[in-house]
């Protein structure tokens, strides 16, 4: 009987707590066998060493906060993986059921795609606007995307999320892996390069994780600033494939949804959130025009800029 392809789970962590422990518990109950769980933990003093005794598949590498990089840290983890496939997750992405690994690997094993990503469902405490955003970005219908979809889907052709995404390790190594220095969007950088080489991306609606945030306007600003920076750093990917149209479509559909739900007072919240998002994105795209003190004020990831100053 042919053995199943092997898979490792890779999770960057920072101050992991009870939510992370529950994630480990749910990974243990997956129907598809996991070979190992590799954690890239930032700052050892916040790590619970008891987890290494309780979860035998767990391996941990500790790094300093200044060493963390969205692309570089994940790339370092990949170098330590020997399995056929790698699933990247974040510490707050909770498997919705025991079939997450099985479902997210399906298109890779069947060779219909070379990277796949999961559907993100809202948590119970998720606010209404964010709940609708999850539905907009992660619908019920699965989708496989390739270069031929670029005229129709635009930037969404390249969309992939390392909140929970699976990679064919052989193709990953062939492609050169994640960019070693990325403030944000390391997953989309890789996905775009993949698509341009003729490979495909699968959105797996049946692979589900519970993951959402109730960001404040300020947090939305900082996050979208980094998103703008990431796009400005890679004009070869994003030039001519605008994000603004997708953002406007989301705002319009959210407004219609709020009116339909008879909650028009939430339109003010939508307006301010959208304004802060766009302001952050607009400034991030033009970060080269600003002094470093202003960039550090705007960013979510100060260590990225501190590394750049050191280099």
Plain-language structure description:
- It is a single chain.
- This protein is of the alpha/beta class.
- Helix content is 45%, strand content 17%.
- The protein contains 14 helices and nine strands.
- Strands 1, 2, 3, 4, 5, 6, 7, 8 and 9 form a nine-stranded mixed sheet that branches.
- Helix 2 (50-54) links the parallel strand 2 and strand 3 (58-63).
- The longest helix has 20 residues, at 266-285.
- The model has no long low-confidence stretch (mean pLDDT 93).
Instruction: Provide the helix percentage.
Output: 40-55%
Task: Name the average pLDDT.
Answer: 93
How large a portion of the residues is in β-strands, by DSSP E?
15-25%
Low-confidence stretches: none
Number of strands: 9
H/E topology pattern = EHEHEHEEHEHEHEHHEHHHHHH
What is the 3D shape?
globular
Q: Rg from C-alpha positions? A: 19 Å
Query: What class do helices, strands and sheet pairing give?
Result: alpha/beta
Give the number of helices. Answer: 14
- Biggest sheet record: 9 strands, mixed
Q: What is the end-to-end distance?
A: 52 Å
